[in-house]
Write a structure and sequence with these properties.
Strand order of the largest sheet: 1-8-2-3-7-4-6-5-9-10
CATH class: Alpha Beta
Number of strands: 10
CATH topology: DHBP synthase
Number of helices: 8
Helix content: 25-40%
Structural class: alpha/beta
Shape: globular
Length: 209
């Protein structure tokens, strides 16, 4: 597979590059893109066959679910059932490095959720990621753009090293932010931090008081 690299230059030509990446995702392809933490590898979350390609490209175990990357809470409501507390967290911390686990709607298939009944909702704050998500017009299932067990990439060069020839395109925006993954939160049966990240449990509890 030939992997196209779309390097953003900070000028008017960037829109066309983002549009090309969005078209690849909508048509069932794989695109690596930056977030405020690390580079992610994304596919159309409504296309189970496309999402399966993420697992193949990364050698990712099928039992590990993907996160749905979204550009608005309205988009989240279309794929998941949100409680008031979930909405509080989303409004307080997103866009940003927080993932909220919620019961999924039927529109999200088994591949994304690894056969489970819930889906992870992620709202990246990176400008280029948000531009891409808005242009896609669909939720984007994604995980870090690396081979499983390798370090998550914070620059496009490492993505190329890992995945060139395995994916359709890379949206190259240079170096990302912290390199620390998003905090993953579940509210089922009380607050649970499933993965520690940038946002702390203390910050989360203060919002839920």
């Amino acid at each position: 597979m030939r992997t196209l690299v779309y390097k953003l230059r900070g000028d008017r030509t960037d829109k066309a590059r983002i549009e090309k990446c969005a078209a690849i995702i909508r048509s069932g392809g794989l695109v690596a893109f930056p977030t405020e933490t690390v580079y992610g590898l994304g596919a159309n979350a409504l296309d189970d066959a496309a999402c399966a390609k993420i697992f193949a490209a990364k050698n990712r175990p099928a039992e590990k679910p993907l996160l749905c990357h979204l550009c608005s809470i309205e988009q989240a409501e279309e794929i998941a059932y949100l409680t008031d507390d979930m909405r509080k967290l989303i409004k307080a911390f997103t866009p940003g490095p927080l993932t909220v686990i919620a019961p999924k709607r039927e529109v999200i298939g088994d591949t994304v959720c690894a056969g489970g009944a819930t889906v992870g909702l992620r709202f990246p704050s990176n400008k280029e990621a948000l531009d891409l998500l808005r242009e896609c017009g669909v939720p984007v299932a994604a995980t870090s753009a690396n081979i499983s067990s390798f370090p998550a990439p914070t620059n496009a060069e490492l993505v190329k090293e890992y995945l060139r020839g395995r994916i359709d395109a890379i949206l190259d925006c240079g170096v990302t932010g912290s390199g620390v993954a998003s905090t993953i939160v579940s509210l089922e049966g009380g607050l649970k931090i499933l993965r520690e990240g940038v946002i702390t449990e203390k910050q989360i509890r203060e919002v839920l008081l």
